[in-house]
């Protein structure tokens, strides 16, 4: 590890090496501001919860079993949402508002816990793929990697197609924090001269997992992602896809497996 030596700015011999990068949150604030913020936040949460419980009492005669601390748990969040549906409040995005208000605490808890998740990537289509063949469009296929798991769709390449449809989903396992990004490579199939990479896009999963606003979305947004190749600064095409991340502890009954097959 310390075999190589280099001189630093002061001319001293240094054996320092970069062996990794730190990713984290740094809070700078005054004690007073923090106390005020906490008080205001708790008041908003209490009011919101009280409103929900009042409506629940009126509609069903009982309160919803719910604790704000449970919002960091994806399973509990879904249970709470299904209770809100029963009293016709699902359209108000209450879970999302509560999760936003409580996001600092939820984030702290989820950063301290190791959560094993299923990462589900829905690949819809790609378009405007640049050609890697002389005089004809590429013959594209997907090559997907995440945490050492690989999906190689080489045998499903699509002949002369700059705008291929995929309509398939792919599951990966990952533990948060620490999950690697998903790497989406689109390759051009070529039996004679060898396959060529058309382009790559990388989806950061931790950014999504640790963003409460993203977590609270029951339908994750479709992403249009540009593909890039090291040989050019220009986009080599676009893939259309979306990602879902759910703890393995979540009961599949609470998860929707979207049917995107044609
Ligand atoms: Ca080809």
Overview of this protein structure:
With 262 residues, this protein is of the alpha+beta class. The chain has 2 domains: 31-111, no CATH class; 115-254, Immunoglobulin-like (Sandwich), CATH 2.60.40. The chain is 27% helix and 26% strand. The protein has 6 helices and 10 strands, in the order E-E-H-H-H-H-E-E-E-E-E-E-H-H-E-E. The strands form 3 sheets. A 4-stranded antiparallel beta sheet has the order 6-3-10-9. The longest helix has 30 residues, at 31-60. The chain starts with 5 loop residues before the first strand and ends in a 15-residue tail after the last strand. The mean pLDDT is 87. Bound molecules: calcium ion. The site of calcium ion has 7 residues, from loops.
- Give the overall shape: flat
Ligands, deduplicated? calcium ion
User: How much helicity do the residues have?
Assistant: 25-40%
| Mean of all residue-level pLDDT scores | 87
> What is the CA-atom radius of gyration, in angstroms?
24 Å
Order of helices and strands: EEHHHHEEEEEEHHEE
Question: From the helix content, strand content and strand pairing, which structural class follows?
Answer: alpha+beta
Please give the CATH architecture of the largest domain.
Sandwich
Provide the CATH superfamily of the largest domain.
Answer: C2 domain
The tally of beta strands, per DSSP, is 10
Q: How many domains, in number, for the residues?
A: 2
């Amino acid at each position: 590890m310390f075999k190589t030596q280099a001189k630093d700015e002061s001319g001293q011999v240094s054996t320092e090496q970069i062996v990794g990068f730190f990713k984290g949150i740094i809070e700078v604030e005054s004690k007073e501001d923090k106390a005020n913020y906490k008080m205001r936040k708790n008041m908003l949460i209490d009011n919101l919860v009280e409103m929900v419980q009042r409506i629940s009492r009126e509609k069903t005669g009982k309160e919803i079993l719910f604790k704000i601390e449970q919002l960091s748990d994806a399973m509990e969040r879904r249970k709470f949402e299904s209770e809100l549906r029963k009293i016709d409040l699902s359209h108000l995005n209450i879970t999302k508002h509560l999760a936003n208000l409580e996001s600092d605490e939820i984030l702290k808890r989820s950063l301290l816990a190791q959560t094993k998740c299923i990462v589900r990537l829905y690949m819809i289509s790609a378009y405007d793929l640049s050609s890697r063949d002389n005089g004809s469009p590429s013959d594209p296929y997907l090559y997907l990697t995440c945490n050492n798991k690989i999906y190689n769709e080489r045998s499903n390449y699509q002949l002369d197609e700059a705008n291929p449809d995929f309509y398939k989903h792919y599951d990966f396992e990952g533990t948060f924090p620490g999950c690697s990004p998903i790497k989406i490579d689109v390759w051009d199939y070529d039996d004679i001269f060898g396959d060529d990479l058309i382009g790559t896009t990388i989806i950061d999963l931790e950014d999504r997992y640790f963003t409460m606003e993203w977590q609270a979305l029951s339908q994750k947004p479709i992403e249009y992602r540009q593909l890039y190749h090291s040989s050019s600064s220009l986009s080599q095409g676009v893939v259309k896809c979306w990602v879902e991340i759910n703890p393995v502890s979540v009961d599949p009954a609470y998860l929707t497996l979207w049917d995107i097959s044609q």
